[in-house]
Amino acid sequence: CFHLLNSNSRRRRSAKLPPGPYPFPVIGNILQFGQNPHQSLTKLSKTYGPLMHLRLGSIDTIVVSSPEMAKEILQTHDQAFPLRLTTAATRALDHHVTSVAFLPIGNQWRNLRKICKEHMFSIQRLHANEGLRQEKLQKLLQYVQECCVNGRAVDIGQAAVVTSLNMTSNTVFSVDFADYNTCQELEDIIRRCMRVWGSPNLGDYFGFLGLFDPQGIKREAEFCVGKLLAIFDSIIDRRVEASRNSQARKTDLLEVLLEISGGNQAELTRNEMKHLFVDLFVAGVDTTSGTVEWVITELLRNPHVMSKLKMEVRTVLEANKQVEESDISKLPYLQAVIKEAFRYHPPGPFITRCKDGDDLEIKNYNIPKNALILINIWATGRDPNIWPNPDSFQPERFLNTEVDVKGHNLELIPFGSGRRICPGMPLAYRMVHLIVAYLIQHFDWKLEPGIAPGDVDLNETLGLSLHKTIPLKAVPIKP
Ligand code: HEM
């Protein structure tokens, strides 16, 4: 009876909202989001369907759990969703007014995206600075070889973080953080920044009550962003100084950005450049390394997949040949393995957008203005109506299909889709394939003593990205 009363009053207030669990006064459905919202919302969508309405405190939230509905938001009506939700943490030091990741779609955002696309992540640009990433593979090889000689297990996620962090920093500004001894420090700050951005303060949802003081979160975010900006400032200063004294030009992105900002200040200010670097590192490092960790986890859980991949990698890349980015296209099984990891363990389980302007009708449901949209790609990746045997790791499902991760196939969009699709995708794609190919080409891998393939833990923790709760340790063996 109580339930009926609730659903009647709900219908009276907003007849055409998509279905969803009844929101409690004030807190809305916040308790139903739980510790792992991607999982709780997947369960709820089985009851309420692929377009679901909940209230996150005071925020109308629409959860999308099918490729058809995702297409409506990301492509058909994308003009209506130009915003991302900003929180107290992402507004610290005004990051959101300069950041490509948080700016609404508009001229400033378009300009930054154009710079990313044309000057940083174009095929030509990435080809020109591939050597900078290759150096990092050598460092990885040395490290794993040391572990191999000493019979030590490698913390795969950690090794991948150091490699992707240094590959990104080498690509962006030819700085090898290991040389500056700041890799660990930078990694810690990036992690802290991700943590604080990835766990919104309750005040973000109940701001109107004024009960929750976001000062602590804001201070932490200010510290992290401030520290990153200071590191980038000193790197830029050093480069400007060095170019005054030398004619030799680097091939990295900083050189291009300095050229652009020197030639036309209006196109890119130094402040924008520094905030762009914050975005590139925070958005790029853990997502890339997390993917590598999930791939190796699944390879160790599925020895037959590991054998098949090993065979392909070692046949195509003869002994001692250093894997190059142009080799990726010759490794179809590797590509399938990585697509399968993206399907089952998307580093960003939600693609987020915010509604601007008036209410909008989609499939006869009302999407209220200012609504937060969560596209649950973790749910679509495990939907048995889309993927036969979704809980089994089967790269073969991607052999002989045209499905890719570039945003056209809405059932597999680990990098998002539409105008806001991840601009770093071309770099991320190269880094993930290179690192995995390299680890498999040069080493056999086994689990630590006493752990069977089926025992490998698959628990997930959601921050700004979705990562393994217990880091994967694997023992390298010389083949
Ligand atoms: C496997 C690695 C990665 C994954 C899975 C990933 C995934 C994503 C996703 C899902 C989005 C949101 C897209 C959307 O809203 O439609 C995004 C945005 C973004 N990513 Fe990535 N990313 C990865 C690596 C990188 C790298 C290496 C960089 C740069 C070095 C990067 C920079 C960005 C930026 C700047 C945005 C914000 C774009 C905007 O809002 O306009 N990402 N990424």
Short description:
With 479 residues, the protein is of the alpha+beta class.
Can you give a write-up of this model?
This protein is of the alpha+beta class. It has a single domain (2-477), classed as Cytochrome p450 (Orthogonal Bundle). The chain is 51% helix and 9% strand. It has helices at residues 2-13, 30-33, 37-48, 67-76, 107-120, 123-128, 130-150, 156-173, 177-180, 183-198, 202-205, 215-245, 253-263, 270-301, 303-316, 332-344, 377-381, 425-442; strands at 51-56, 59-64, 154-155, 350-354, 360-362, 365-367, 372-376, 444-447, 460-462, 466-468, 473-477. The strands form 4 sheets. Strands 1-2-7-4 form a 4-stranded mixed sheet. A 3-stranded antiparallel sheet has the order 3-11-8. A two-stranded antiparallel ribbon has the order 5-6. Helix 8 (156-173) packs antiparallel against helix 14, helix 10 (183-198) crosses helix 14 (270-301) and helix 14 (270-301) crosses helix 15. The chain is globular and about 65 Å long. Residues 1-13 have low confidence and may be disordered. Protoporphyrin IX containing FE binds next to helix 14 and helix 18. One of its GO terms (cellular component) is membrane. It is found in: Membrane. Its main location: membrane.
Order of helices and strands: HHHEEHHHHEHHHHHHHHHEEEEHHEEEE
The average pLDDT score comes to: 88
**Total domain modules:** 1
> Low-confidence spans: pLDDT under 50, at least 5 residues?
1-13
Strand order of the largest sheet: 1-2-7-4
| CATH domain topology | Cytochrome p450
